[in-house]
Amino acid sequence: MSSPAAPSVLFVCVHNAGRSQMAAAFLTRLGGDRVEVRSAGSAPADTVNPAVVEALAEVGIDISAEVPKVLTVEAVQASDVVITMGCGDACPYFPGKRYLDWKLQDPAGQGVEAVRPIRDQIERRIRGLLADLGIEPVA
């Protein structure tokens, strides 16, 4: 008996340097190989926000090698769930996809103290998303 294909989730924000990177990192950690994870930005930054890298390192997640990626139509088409985080009309819409819009404070220009509560809020939302998808968190 073959297992169904892992659901694919795409996180999108403007710069792909903060919120979407944190969400992708948590979903990768907690969902393991039972979920396919992508993140992208409508106007990607050059680098991931250093305060975001630091805030995730505090909880044992290393994203120091990640780079912001540009949002493509193909990435949206290949995803079952598209979670937007403040990219507004820049996010392409395709019928048949499940869209969620997570209202989260933008960590851009913030220090690690300001990023920690955003990180924790994202982790809670990821745990809720996994429950919605019927996937037991790894940790």
Topology of helices and strands:
Elements: E1 8-13, H1 19-31, E2 36-41, H2 50-57, H3 73-77, E3 81-84, E4 98-101, H4 112-133
Parallel strand pairs: 1-2, 1-3, 3-4
Helix pairs in contact: 1-4, 2-4
Would you kindly provide a brief summary of this structure?
The protein has 139 residues and is an alpha/beta fold. It has four helices and four strands; from the N terminus they run βαβααββα. It has helices at residues 19-31, 50-57, 73-77, 112-133, and strands spanning 8-13, 36-41, 81-84, 98-101.
Description:
The protein is built from 4 helices and 4 strands. It has a 4-stranded parallel sheet, covered by helices on one side. Helix 1 crosses helix 4 and helix 2 packs across helix 4. The protein has 139 residues and is α/β, with parallel strands linked by helices. The chain has helices at residues 19-31, 50-57, 73-77, 112-133; strands at 8-13, 36-41, 81-84, 98-101.
- Radius of gyration, in Å, reads 14 Å
Number of helices: 4
Shape: globular
Straight-line distance between termini: 26 Å
The strands making up the biggest β-sheet line up spatially as 2-1-3-4
Structural class: alpha/beta
User: What percent of the residues sit in helical stretches (DSSP H or I)?
Assistant: 25-40%
Major sheet description: 4 strands, parallel
The SSE order reads: EHEHHEEH
Low-confidence stretches: none
Task: List its traits.
alpha/beta, 139 residues
